[in-house]
Every structure is written in C-alpha cells, then in structure tokens.
Design brief:
- The chain has a single domain (7-117), classed as STAS domain (Transcription Regulator spoIIAA, 2-Layer Sandwich).
- α1 packs parallel to α2 (62-77).
- By secondary structure, the chain is α/β, with parallel strands linked by helices.
- The strands form 2 sheets. It has a 5-stranded mixed β-sheet. Strands 3-5 form a two-stranded parallel sheet.
- The chain has 5 helices and 7 strands; from the N terminus they run βββαββαβααβα.
- Helices cover 46% and strands 25% of the residues.
Amino acid sequence: MAADSRLRVKSIEGVTQVEFIDRNILDEANIQAIGDEISVLIEEADVPNLLLSFSNVDHLSSAALGALITINNKVKAKGGALRLANIDPQIYEVFMITRLNKLFEIHETTDDALKAFA
C-alpha cells in the first residue's frame, strides 16, 4: 500500500478487510484514490472476498456510493463477494433511501461479516 493510502488493509482467512481512515469520504479526488486502491486489491485476488468496514466513517457522499457500486460490480465479475460492516445509522439511512441496502450485504459488525463469508 502507498504511504498516502486512505485505507487500512489486512487479510483474514482469505478475506481482505478494508478499513477507511477518513471520517468523511466526500472529496471527489479522495473517492477516486480509494476506488483505485480497492480496484487494485480486487485485481490482485483470484476470487476477491472483500469486507469494507465503515467503523471510522461519519459521512459518505453520493459519489462514494457510486464508487461502492463499481467496486461491487468488479468483485462480482470475478466471482467474489463484498460485505459491508459497521455502518453508522445515519449513513445506513442513506443506503435505505437509495435502496442500496438491497444491493449490498450489510452486517452490523466485522465479525458478523467475516462469518458470512464462511
């Protein structure tokens, strides 16, 4: 990972766990950088099993939601799975309004999400 990475990445039992460093994922350039980093993780994996933890995140822009959809499509195209976890209730509300809670598999905790890969 690059020194200016906006992500904390670790691998647990074949699952790549990604934690966002930023509290606010609003800035277009930042979202692009995050999307690019995650795309690399997906490309490097034979079958990408990706867990995105939003435990530090307070705000997400609509552009960030768009990036998540792109990430989801890339993961699915390679036969992998994407799980989201630790989403702030206010952010989760946005997922519900946009019906993205139907598109994504969202778990309360990273532990729950990890079990869902099994």
